[in-house]
Amino acid sequence: MAAIDHSWREEAECRDERVDVFFSSFGEGYAKGLCAACPVREACLSYALETGQEDGVWGGLNSLERRDLFRAATAGGRPLETVTYTTRARSTGAVCSAGRTEEGWGAACVTHGNHATARSRTDAETAVSRPQEWCPECAPIAAGLAPKETSRKG
User: Fold this and answer.
1) Cβ pair 120, 79 in contact under 8 A
2) Helix (H, G, I), strand (E, B) or coil at 153
């Protein structure tokens, strides 16, 4: 069994914060704000996903968001092996992630469980901000024919 690398923690924005901020619903907004500016957010999120962290905010996502990300990333037989970017699209309200798949780069609409392939990391990360271009459920939302997503399907 390979040892897990914890060296990223030394550069984390939260390294001097109280741990309970990341494990209470009252501190979630503050914790996510720290994560948004953190240079090792991706490493933190990857660590949480790889080690099955069930509680707290890790890499800017709470436990429900990580669960949804994992489910969407493993749906359709094309898992996102490495997540590089996760955001809530302004146009639709859907939570989307970009990452590396077995075949190359891809994007996943976590809210709807749909996937798209991309030519590069840049294309995949750009795609998550415009899911209406590749996610069938996001297209009517962006066109104003359906309400924006306010919560993820679970």
Assistant:
1) no
2) coil
